[in-house]
Amino acid sequence: MIAIIAAIQAEIDALLKLLKDDTICTLDGISFWQGHIGEMAVVLMQSGVGKVNAAMSTTLLIKHYAPEVIVNIGTAGGLCEDEQIFDLVIADQVVQYDFDTSYVDGAEGIGRFVPCDKALCMYCEAVCKALKMNYHTGLIASGDQFVGRDSQLRALLQRFPKAKCAEMEAGAIAQVCAHFAIPFAMVRSLSDIAFQEKSNLSFWEYAEQASKRSAAICAALIQAWSDKQV
Question: For a tag on the chain, would you pick the N or C end, based on fewer CB atoms within 10 A?
């Protein structure tokens, strides 16, 4: 079974349109949808926004469903000048950019990094190429804040200049998956770009369409993984 995690309703709605024979189950206040995408058994979960929600719900998911693979999809804010709205970002690693124990640990205490599964990352890249979707592979920055102000952007990029996008759940999901030794992939569709004017407004305008793009690559990734298992 493959598990798919998304944070907000627009991301869930895009995925539910792809899910066949689905049933819903609520465990400890978290909703899970089981069904199939193609021939692959899938469980879909809405994590809620932020790292605490993501960590709690991902742990419930793993304990109740024991998925073989976890894919986290959704929207994010782009951090690079060469990015465009609706581009995809595939994580090769994730950093919790607001994790900071440098007062006692020095520079090593800045950021908590977790590498993503290399094979799944390569699958994602192959799917993007096949679908002719523009994509970027690299670091996803994850923290408990919506990065919309210039001061936030400058501070984040000063510490993590290689970050491709910022969002609020991937860091926690990655840490939980690593703890339980479950392979995982992170894919984000850019709903806004920090360097573009009025990017704080474009998120709401473009989130729904960005969600559809991340759902589409997720479905293609599941199909590729399904073919591998046959």
Answer: C
